[in-house]
């Protein structure tokens, strides 16, 4: 089965090594040949367009040469992509929205000394294989497990003395997320006052909301999609039940047909266009009548990273343990080729966007 992560990927605010800081500020960079592997047709072409627009904008500033390769996500395509990157003498390639593409291309990319930076694939198993076989795979995305880790961190740190409930929709996503969170909470000394599996896709969730109130819960994690979470929050407010609602990355979806209530919390990726480091580039996009949606700014940042790493020789050899100044802030990879900190953040739905709750003005 094809796997494609359609959520955007946020970069972390890591603690960087001194050597990395020096690399990121070490004078002018050189032009490089960089592969951009992204869908150019089919159902994911829109996401691929975001990647291509971001990469082209970054490359144009430094005169980098892009090798744009269509990512079909079909079996066997990965080896063809690796051959093309080798023939074009790319120093690295960014994009890679499909796990199939990566898993097939990485052995050949290792032989060619070409680093691969994914903006999307979250598979931990693939990264474990990459470490075992020393494949040049780097992830500019959350890894599997980051979501539950951040949610548990928030609850343990901010809801320590609150009556917490965990409810989920019975899907693999919701059930697994709630299970991991529960384990982490109980290990931290917090026992939920209520747990339940609700029936998803209902027009109202009053019965669930009233059971939460009867159990004394004031804070609830909802392991489900945007609409179910919005329905629960709406019904709690209509029944005058005070309930703080938090969800995961799935809440970053279209705000319809039921809108999220202001104050709904989510652990998800931030809106890159609101970051101070992105202000100039976002302005440049908008002057051209374009909006840097989705993967555009992460792709822009990935090209910046490759360009900076290329000044020291092999890109694959100079990504780990370094810090790079980018349009989405400083980005660094650990020796495990993962981002140095969890990229997911606690955000609050307000004014039709997920924003940092610490920046409230009301």
Looking across the biggest beta sheet, what order are the strands in?
Answer: 7-6-8-9-10-13-14
Shape estimate: elongated
CATH architecture of the largest domain: 3-Layer(aba) Sandwich
Rg calculated over all Cα atoms? 21 Å
Number of helices: 11
Q: What is the name of the CATH topology of the largest domain? A: Rossmann fold
How helix-rich are the residues, as a percent range? 25-40%
Query: What is the CATH homologous superfamily assignment of the largest domain?
Result: Response regulator
Structural class: alpha/beta
Number of DSSP E strands: 14
Taking all residues together, what is the mean pLDDT? 91
What string gives the helices and strands in order?
Answer: HEHEHEHEHEHEHEHEHEEHHEEEE
Uncertain spans: 5-29
Count up the domains. 2
Largest sheet: 7 strands, mixed
Ends: how far apart? 47 Å
What is the CATH class name of the largest domain?
Alpha Beta
Strand content: 15-25%
